[in-house]
Amino acid sequence: MDRTCVKNNRNKTKSGENGEKRDGTFHLQNPHLERMDEDVLYHLGLNTTSHNFVEMFGDVKFVCMGGTANRMETFAYYLLDVLGLKLPTGTTLIDISRNSHRYSMYKVGPVLSISHGMGVPSIGILLHEIMKLLKYAKVKDPVLFRIGTCGGIGVEGGTIVISEDAVDGLGSSYFQVPVLGKIVRRPAVFDKELIEELKDCVDPKDSYKTVTGITLCADDFYEGQGRLDGAFCDYTEAEKMEYLHKLKDQGVVNFEMEALVFAALTHHAGIRAADVCVACLDRLKGDQV
Amino acid sequence: MDRTCVKNNRNKTKSGENGEKRDGTFHLQNPHLERMDEDVLYHLGLNTTSHNFVEMFGDVKFVCMGGTANRMETFAYYLLDVLGLKLPTGTTLIDISRNSHRYSMYKVGPVLSISHGMGVPSIGILLHEIMKLLKYAKVKDPVLFRIGTCGGIGVEGGTIVISEDAVDGLGSSYFQVPVLGKIVRRPAVFDKELIEELKDCVDPKDSYKTVTGITLCADDFYEGQGRLDGAFCDYTEAEKMEYLHKLKDQGVVNFEMEALVFAALTHHAGIRAADVCVACLDRLKGDQV
């Protein structure tokens, strides 16, 4: 891919469907936040009293999230190289959220590189806190990316998958969560324009393929993704293959475990977001990574 | 608590409701596992070809799991002290799963101390892999503990909460997961005998209180637990308090994010398990940790 082709749209005045305002700031639909003297972003190890968010994060344009702390540290150093940035002599990158022991966060120029752990609840907590961080830092038009790993469905290992839509294990494209004892449903929608911008980045000379399609966001790695090699399995290989082929016929190109809440919460806030994963394997050929 | 009061029941011949056999070994209900030449426990960074599980883990009696890698490393060193074990000169504990970058695992005598991340999917992956590890290591009568943090409901910060039952955000005591496109429901049941053993460990001289009750396993930290301080909030403080008091009246004593799958998968395998958490705060008094 062309490394410079996705631009932060600071100059645009487009209004998001939900929270995004015309001046590029976005609105978090929570009136209680305005009344709080202090906000502790517990899982990021930051709070609005001890930390000056505008000073620390006011220049952020992109937030990149991936599963492991190790990968997001590596990605941060990769960004240093790609962006041609030099750290002052005698300094090194440091995990900004190291005191939380929950996520790891690195900042390289206008990019945050953050680990999100595994599964919807884990990235969900991060999304709540990172969106509040961006709001307190008065960041305009941020773009969020999940850069993860996935299992391809009829998609070879090493292929890049850009999610066009996200569905759960029952085919619903809503993120559903019980709130005060009742289910709240939020549509899981990715920014179509951003997907097109990413597709425009694909270079025919790339050493890997890039595909787009529907992403199945599972709540389990084994039974929830039709694997035969979990601690439990009540179905046959034939039933598994029938299921995988049915998904493929429906346009599902990969399994991962975060897309639904990622699409839903960013869409609800009016923040542009895309889920871009590398396939570790083609699930039509096997289960083990 | 008396540090030595929970015994591994190697000498018992009790048969579990589901998978536990009379000789203490347990049965994972997956016929496919017997037909695999090799099993890669991907998220633990171990596989049955390169690692001799019987030699490495055959003496394991207890598995303790908690959220962060940092806490479980600290707990491992605490165990060294409590169990009066000495490492050979010139050695130190090492994270056995360091190559996976997903979970951290330490072994101290007969105890594994492992991080599980946050939320049902994250601990679910670990449970699948740790139960396979115990099976391959031919461990008999293992006992699993989750030692976590939680939000108390009418329970003061610093109090220890032993879960008697687990429910989801709609009050269901089943772990529900889509498998091949259809919901599979597994009862979330903790071992009553183990709970009694833990209650017997309570010492009136303890500097903290210990309570038991129902645990609400949420899929979100903010809206899913009735907090006012997430990125979004569509309810009032009065509605939140009404909800929390209703939960309290129903016998719910704490919120956390893993109990349901922990109880369900261990029960399904016939493995004894208990969820013991410390309350970080009383949610009747506030939201922020």
From TrEMBL, chains A, B:
Q: What ranges does the record list as Basic and acidic residues composition bias?
A: 14-25
The entry's phosphate-binding residues are: 102, 146-149
A Gene Ontology biological process noted in the UniProt record is: uridine catabolic process
Gene3D superfamilies named among the record's database cross-references: Nucleoside phosphorylase domain
Q: Which Pfam families match?
A: PNP_UDP_1
Q: Which GO terms describe its cellular component?
A: cytosol
What are the boundaries of the region Disordered? 1-25
Where does the chain bind substrate? 225, 227
What organism does the UniProt record list as the source?
A: Henosepilachna vigintioctopunctata
Q: Where is the Nucleoside phosphorylase domain?
A: 61-279
Which InterPro entries has this protein been placed in? Nucleoside_phosphorylase_d, Nucleoside_phosphorylase_sf, Uridine_phosphorylase_euk
A single GO molecular function, which one? uridine phosphorylase activity
Origin, by domain of life?
Eukaryota
List the protein's name: Nucleoside phosphorylase domain-containing protein
